[in-house]
Amino acid sequence: MTSDAGIDLVAYSPADAKAYTIQVKTKEQPVLAGGKGKASLVWFLRNDSPADLVATVDLDKDRVWLFKMIEFRERAQQHSEKGILQLYMYVDASVRTKHQCAHVAQFDKFLLERRVKGLFFSVQ
User: Fold this and answer.
1) What is the rounded average pLDDT for all residues in the chain?
2) Which residues pair with 30 in a beta bridge?
3) Global pTM value
4) Which long-range contacts (CB under 8 A, 24 or more apart) does 74-82 make?
5) Is the dihedral of CA 31, 34, 36, 40 positive or negative?
6) Which residues contact 54 (CB under 8 A, 6 or more apart)?
7) For residue 15, what are the contacts with CB-CB under 8 A and spacing of at least 6?
8) Per-residue DSSP letter, 106
9) Is 28 exposed, middle or buried (0-12, 13-18, 19+ CB in 10 A)?
10) What digits encode the pLDDT tens for the residues 35-90?
């Protein structure tokens, strides 16, 4: 695309005859939270993103999570006054956090291989 309108991909779902817009966010590898904390994957997204779906990608481990936009908003642990959402996942399950959902394993139901069938194909 020649401009960044917040849409990276469009995927057609034969299950409901609908085209879904997708914003893709990638991370090459985990970073230290706050620059010196525990290793985590962190993605930022504008709250007003026009995308239907958000794909978050961990290139290091070859993993993709697929969220409906509302799910991303609900699970983003930080919401800035400037309208930026921050979703993070700690890679170490032993890290203590005040957030209910903040470890990689807690996002398993959003892994691409678990979401695609329900979103894009009729579940029989």
Assistant:
1) 89
2) none
3) 0.88
4) 75/101, 75/107, 76/45, 77/102, 79/47
5) negative
6) 22, 23, 24, 25, 45, 66, 67, 68, 69, 72
7) 119, 120, 121, 122
8) G
9) exposed
10) 888 899 999 999 999 999 999 999 999 999 999 999 999 999 999 999 999 999 99
